[in-house]
Write a structure and sequence with these properties.
By secondary structure, the chain is α+β, with helices and mostly antiparallel strands. It contains 10 helices and 42 strands.
Length: about 750
């Protein structure tokens, strides 16, 4: 069957390059039933005159520079052509309807949050296929609750969501400040709603980006971060570099034009003012200025000014330079507790007297654990702290005395994850709530009463369940393998019990490996369908660059050590093949964002190793990434192309600049699918557009390249945040149809 692109407005030429043979058998493995597809790719214009001169007069051509203008007619027509091609191709996949029906079945009723604020309780719920979770308010633990905010009523297609992580209730629980996400853009708006009366306040806060919300304890207003001087940016379509992030104060019930700047760092326009908090006692504002994963700490004494916030606040420099990460935990009067990796690669809790903040006076409250990484700490019940450690790539929760730091209790959890935003308790409350999840557990909200030691027992409060899935029939194992340089790297494998290690198992290998972010055992709905309906193995490699073993693990996979991340991932694939779990034709690899960069680099470096590559929102142009939106803040992770030493290693692995399709007629690049979104203003779609065009251009002179290069560009969506359920299902169906068409696996009912 022949795929054609038909558009009367399309001015982009088309060329035929790829022939795909995909096969199926009744056993769901490679068989003899063959279909042939001839793909006509768009042939976008190349401007060979566009180039940049880097260090030592290195000339780097950039023939697709014009694709960086996302608002041009030419780019819009290219996107139209690409989506028409992708749609025609993927819609021909077998088992498409079956897989979609299975995903919809798995999206069952679920709770994502339950917590108390003031006298009331609140929950975030979804009946199953609702595009966005709904906020409920409850008068008691057992009451059914009423709807406080239903984002599904704000747009017909579910593309308006609320930020579940950073929306915030006032201290008395009477006003809900909710951050709205439109089309997935990082540009946000803030609205306010009265909980009891149900009224929405008249004002809207605009141009909010990279912001948390911090309420003053008089319940009058919030601190938020924004770029209010950038009024003319088109949400999600403007890639211009952001700068001069400022912290503002807003009084509820007034217009945004009356908001005042309370903190800024004009001498450092690249700093983010993010994670700012009002202290637990309400007397202080903690101001955090970030660049990369390091931040400074300044504190403003609100009590000293009688809580009258009329302009810039006098900031006390506690940590006045960028050298480590600091996260506020609690304070007793003017002694503050921070979680930091300063001189502690696995993090520790320290105490700082803000009247004498010299580092020589700092004391340890909970010293660094030499093997486990302290991810976060939260004060509870006025006398305890809950500490979350990562221990061998799983969450371990502990209860500590807040005054002495001594361990009180270890909570008994399976292999899984409890992230900071899944912990829902307030400092004064005697009850804690948190959501636990794992590769096989979609979410259990646990409850624990701390009023007496005998009651320190976890009880299941709410549990999300899946239809037609018996988790007892599956197993998660952790394996360890050797990377290229001999480093031992962990990896999780989850699959159906009784699996035969015969090399014929479809395998989905995922990784991230960046920014010190740990890939812990969390839940993915698509992995359940892959394991139960394709007898697949779901694998997560905990490669260097992540934070699974603290800063040493992170630093070993960043900057000039980034190749370690790629080597670790390739070694994971080699291990799976050598140990007979799978084989190259049945191995799919996947990563998002920094993980998408990982996919691009590994695609170029080891095209022989993988059967299918799915790269989501990848960073591919490593010589220009810092020029767009917030990319400059990634320089501490990747390096600066303007720096000669950084340029050398960036140019060496940059996916866009290292496409090398083998000349060997028996070798080719694996089937590759890139996904991006037209409103992604974090990793703009220009990266994917330029990369897919380069892949195809290089393939023109290699007739041995039979595997397809496909790009999927989602409309009215961003960098995954706020993605409606309908779009999530559609994306997953397309990704797995691509896998089906290029591996020959077959869907079966459970």
């Amino acid at each position: 069957m022949r795929i054609m692109i038909r558009s009367s407005s399309l001015l982009i030429s088309i060329f035929t390059i790829t022939v795909i043979d995909y096969t199926f058998s009744h056993e769901g493995r490679l068989g003899s039933e063959t279909n042939t597809i001839v793909i006509n790719y768009p042939n976008p214009r190349r401007d060979e005159n566009v180039s940049d001169i880097y260090h030592n007069n290195t000339i780097v051509k950039d023939p697709y520079r014009w694709m960086e203008n996302l608002n041009s007619d030419e780019t819009k027509k290219l996107i139209e052509a690409e989506n028409a091609l992708t749609r025609s191709y993927l819609d021909k996949s077998p088992f498409r309807a079956e897989f979609e029906a299975r995903l919809k079945e798995l999206y069952n009723q679920r709770y994502s949050k339950f917590f108390q604020k003031g006298k009331r309780f609140f929950s975030y719920q979804n009946t199953g296929l609702q595009n966005q979770d709904v906020v409920f308010v409850h008068d008691s633990l057992t009451s059914e609750g009423r709807v406080l905010l239903d984002p599904n009523t704000l747009s017909k297609d579910g593309t308006i969501a609320f930020d579940q992580y950073f929306s915030a209730f006032s201290e008395d629980g009477q006003i809900f400040a909710y951050i709205l996400i439109a089309n997935g853009s990082d540009w946000r708006t803030v609205r306010f709603k009265h909980v009891e009366q149900g009224d929405i306040y008249k004002e809207t806060l605009e141009n909010v980006k990279l912001s948390s919300l911090a309420w003053t304890h008089d319940n009058k207003g919030v601190f938020y971060s924004a770029y209010l001087d950038q009024k003319n940016k088109t949400e999600g379509l403007n890639i211009n570099r952001d700068g001069n992030h400022r912290l503002y104060y807003h009084v509820v019930g007034t217009e945004q034009s009356q908001d005042v700047v309370v903190a800024e760092f004009p001498e450092h326009p690249d700093y983010w003012l993010f994670g700012n908090k009002v202290s637990k006692c309400g007397k202080y504002l903690i101001v955090c200025a970030h660049l990369g994963d390091e931040n400074m700490i300044h504190i403003a004494d609100l009590e000293k000014i009688n809580y009258e916030i009329k302009g810039k606040l006098q900031l006390i420099p506690i940590v006045p330079k960028l050298e480590a990460s600091y996260r506020y935990v609690n304070n007793h009067n003017r002694t503050f507790i921070f979680n930091t990796n300063k001189d502690a690669g696995n993090f520790k809790l320290i105490k700082i007297d803000i009247d004498n903040p010299d580092p020589k006076t700092w004391t340890d409250l909970v010293p660094e654990n030499k093997t486990d990484v302290l991810e976060w700490a939260a004060p509870v019940f006025n006398k305890f702290m809950v500490l979350s450690y990562t221990q061998n790539v799983k969450t371990v929760l502990q209860l500590h005395d807040i005054k002495t730091g001594n361990l009180v209790k270890k909570f008994d959890l399976e292999i899984g994850e409890v992230d900071y935003y899944s912990f829902f308790s307030e400092e004064q409350s005697q009850t804690i709530y948190f959501r636990f999840e794992s590769f096989l557990t979609p979410g259990i909200i646990y409850r624990c009463n701390l009023s007496s030691p005998s009651s320190f027992t976890l009880e299941v409060f709410k549990e999300n369940k899946l239809k037609n899935f018996d988790r007892t029939k599956y197993i998660t194992e952790q394996v360890f393998y050797k990377s290229k340089d001999g480093t031992t790297v962990p990896m999780y494998l989850t699959y159906k019990k009784g699996l035969q290690k015969n090399g014929n198992n479809p395998t989905f290998l995922h990784a991230y490996g960046g920014y010190g972010s740990s890939s812990l055992p969390n839940f993915r709905i698509d992995s359940i369908a892959f394991m139960s309906n394709f007898d697949g193995i779901f694998a997560v490699a905990n490669i260097r660059g992540g934070g699974e073993y603290g800063e040493k693990w992170h630093n070993a996979g960043k900057l000039d050590k980034k190749q370690n991340s790629f080597d670790d991932f390739q070694s994971a694939a080699e291990y799976l093949i050598a140990e007979n779990y799978t084989k190259t034709p049945l191995l799919t690899i996947n990563g998002l964002s920094n993980g998408g960069l990982l996919m691009g680099a590994c695609l170029n470096q080891r095209p022989d190793l993988f059967g299918v590559v799915i790269s989501e929102a990848g960073v591919f142009d490593m010589l220009r990434y810092d020029k767009f939106t917030i990319g400059y803040n990634w320089i501490p992770e990747y390096g600066a192309p303007s720096n000669e030493s950084d340029f050398k290693y960036l140019f060496k692995y940059s996916p866009l600049h290292n496409v090398r399709i083998p000349d060997d007629p028996n070798k080719q690049y694996p089937a590759t699918m890139l996904t991006t979104s037209d409103h992604d203003d974090r990793v703009p779609p220009l990266h994917a557009l330029k990369f897919i065009s380069t892949l195809r251009h290089e393939a023109k002179s290699h007739p041995n390249q039979k595997n397809p290069f496909i790009i999927r560009i989602e409309a009215n969506a961003g960098h995954s945040e706020g993605e409606p359920t309908e779009k999530t299902i559609a994306r997953l169906v397309d990704e797995y149809c691509f896998i089906i068409m290029n591996t020959g696996i077959k869907f079966h009912t459970t």
